[in-house]
Design a protein that fits this description.
The chain is α+β, with helices and mostly antiparallel strands. The chain folds into 2 domains: 141 residues, Immunoglobulin-like (Sandwich), CATH 2.60.40; 99 residues, no CATH class. Helices cover 42% and strands 20% of the residues. It contains 8 helices and 11 strands. Helix 1 runs antiparallel to helix 2, helix 4 runs antiparallel to helix 5 and helix 4 packs antiparallel against helix 8. The longest helix is centred in the middle third of the chain and has 30 residues. The two termini are 91 Å apart.
Length: 306
């Protein structure tokens, strides 16, 4: 820390007058200067060594507000370039002074001593009077980025490897993305569950679906009339289960009244029941294998999509 005295111009003028006046006036001026408190500006300087191009350093100008007053903002330096070596990046006001942030913007060929610029600031005392404070330059040592001469070689074993960049913490971002993805999956499942249930049959198979499965697995492995009669009886059992009673051609309208979703198959069902009556009571042959499968498939599809 360096301390700089503030020039008290009114007292200096009194001393000048005393030199040309009487001895009594000189004594009076000396006593007045002795009774006037000394005002000082303190400067906290950065370290004086170990800098190269791009490095930042700070100077702080401190003033005792209770004793000396405050710095005049209009007298502070403005951000900008100062000479070949320094750029004043910012001027930050402090409660008891100011902080000046410099950056080195040049590099020497060899280690050199460079001076931070001097400052000429004004201090306004509690009484409102302005005083000058001259802050001299401060010397720092600035070195080159590399000091290898033209006849020197680099020992690879002494060169430090590049520093890897510090990993960015993405755990919070990953948790948010995972949460969003989970909510999207849940929303899609809620929207698609009814459709998938109907399409894939994720519910207990109905009477017509079970009849279709039985017709495919067992009853229609042969095409003889006895096997077709057994298949027809299996389909009649499905009709009776859906209708809740024994279904025949005479009461088939009750089936469509209580189950309107079967309306698209009305013609097929009535025709099949007519063929069934002719087979059981008029000695007609049972319906063909393809006919039974077609009606069973149509009824099972309507049952699944209702």
């Amino acid at each position: 820390m360096r301390t700089f005295m503030v020039r008290t111009e009114p007292i200096e003028r009194k001393l000048g007058a005393a030199r040309t006046g009487s001895a009594a006036a000189a004594v009076f001026a000396a006593v007045l200067m002795w009774l006037t408190p000394t005002r000082a500006v303190e400067v906290i300087e950065p370290r004086a060594f170990g800098y190269t191009v791009g490095d930042a350093l700070q100077r702080q100008v401190i003033v005792d507000r209770n004793r000396d007053g405050a710095l005049d903002p209009a007298s502070l330096p403005k951000p900008g370039r100062y000479g070949r070596w320094f750029q004043l990046r910012e001027v930050v006001a402090l409660p008891d002074g100011v902080r000046l942030a410099y950056q080195i913007i040049n590099t020497p060929m060899h280690l050199e001593a460079e001076n931070l610029p001097s400052l000429d600031v004004h201090v306004i005392d509690p009484g409102g009077r302005s005083r000058d404070a001259d802050i001299g330059p401060f010397t720092i040592m600035v070195g080159p980025v590399s000091s290898i001469g033209p006849n020197e070689t680099i020992d690879a074993d002494k060169v430090r490897p590049d520093l890897n960049p510090k990993p960015i913490d993405t755990s919070g971002l990953r948790r948010r993305i995972l949460g969003y993805a989970l909510m999207l999956v849940v929303l899609a499942a809620v929207q698609l569950a009814p459709i998938l249930t109907r399409r894939l049959g994720w519910r207990r198979a109905g009477p017509f679906a079970r009849a279709l499965r039985a017709l495919r697995q067992r009853a229609l492995r042969a095409s003889d009339p006895a096997t077709r009669s057994a298949a027809l009886l299996r389909l009649h059992a499905a009709f009776d289960e859906v209708a809740g009673r024994t279904l025949a051609l005479d009461n088939v309208q009750d089936l469509f009244a209580s189950h309107p979703w079967l309306a698209p198959a009305r013609a097929s069902v009535e025709t099949l029941l007519a063929e069934s009556r002719a087979s059981f009571f008029d000695q007609a042959p049972p319906p063909a294998r393809e006919r039974l499968l077609s009606v069973a498939l149509q009824l099972a599809t309507l049952e699944r999509n209702r």
